[in-house]
Each structure stands twice: as C-alpha cells, then as structure tokens.
Amino acid sequence: MTPERFITDRWGWEIPAGAAEPGEDLAAAALRELEEESGVRCRTAEPLAQFATSNGLTDQQFHLYRASDLTAGGPITSPEESSEQRWLTRDQRQELIATGQIHDGPTLLALLLLR
C-alpha cells in the first residue's frame, strides 16, 4: 500500500510513478522509478499512453509505460514511497477498484489499458 497521501488524506494502491530528470529518456526514467520504488528491474519499457492530468489547472503530462523482461531485482531504494507491495491478479485488481482502494487516475488508466 502506498503511504497516506496528505492532500487527499487517503491510502490506496498505486503503480510506481515519478519524474524524469532533466534530459533523461522517459522510458529510462520509468524503468528507474520502477526499480527504486519496487525493487523490480525490467529491461524494456513500451509506451502505453501520454495524457494531461488536469487540463485547465496544470500543464503536467504523464507518460505511462508497460515494463517487461524482468530480471533479478535489487533493494528498494525509495522505501518511503510505499508501506506494502504486492503482485495482484486481474480479479484482485478489479475488487480493489470496485471497493475504491485503487483511486489514483494514472493507476486506473494503466490497468484499463492493460486489460
């Protein structure tokens, strides 16, 4: 489970996410964030979608990637990012969505695209 988000005052399940460093390749940034936050190392990242988070309020853009080609993972280097990590089946994901435990927009979109 991810840490409680102070702005929303809620706990919830989320996919790993983060920001690219200036000049960093976006796919490389996605793979780096995945490893830092989960300890999972993947060799490839396939673009899934690019979207605006909230038109009219911010110019923030998200880039979703599907990571694959799993290799041995290392230690989690950003343990403050989450208090629990878990692989979920499709049925478990659907249950968490139905009960409001997955409520993060980027996570919902990623799961919808990966059906």
- The Cα radius of gyration reads 14 Å
Query: Largest beta sheet: what is the strand line-up?
Result: 1-2
Number of helices: 3
Helix content estimate? 25-40%
On the 0 to 100 scale, the average pLDDT is 87
Strand and helix order:
HEEHH
Main β-sheet: number of strands, strand sense, barrel status? Answer: 2 strands, antiparallel
Give the class from helix and strand content and strand pairing. Answer: alpha+beta
Inertia-based shape? globular
Beta strand count: 2
Q: Keywords, please?
A:
3 helices; 27% helix; alpha+beta; two-stranded antiparallel sheet; 115 residues; 2 strands
Give a nutshell description of this structure.
The protein has three helices and two strands.
Structure characterization notes:
By secondary structure, the protein is α+β, with helices and mostly antiparallel strands. 27% of the residues lie in helices and 20% in strands.
